[in-house]
Specification:
Elements (H helix, E strand, L loop, with lengths): L1 E3 L6 E3 L3 E5 L5 E5 L4 E4 L4 E4 L7 E7 L4 H16 L3 E7 L5 H9 L6 E2 L9 E4 L2 E4 L3 H14 L2
Amino acid sequence: MKTDLLVNNIETTTPEKSIYVCEDNTIEQEQKENIAEIDIEDNTIEEMPQEEKTQKLVMFHNGKGPMCIEQLEFLEDIKKEYIKLVVEEYLTTEEGTHNLIYEFMSNHEKSLGVSDNFGYLPITFINNHAYSGFNNEVKKMITKDIKEVYR
């Protein structure tokens, strides 16, 4: 998209950046996440498309418990809507997983969800939150965490 800059001292602000055109035809800009290509000669700005944000969800599960199966099905559905969502799954039955889960847990005083002391699987980490177990309330909280990234 091209935007013609017709008058000096114009301030253009978008959610991605602020652009200031000074009296001497120089352009100052404050980049947030978008990239702009600036052509001083014809006073135009060509905006480059903003990359979609990615969100990582880390899930520890046993692959067979009812809450684990329900969350896996939920994640398959939500990944259809949020295709950039990255899901890292770890089976608690695999060697080395316990050290990794304790490393994640050490960054959180307590978990949200069914248990506040990491007492149920699955254990899920997203957006600096930790969840233990899975039910409708946890489903809503995880969905909210994902949506915050895609605002």
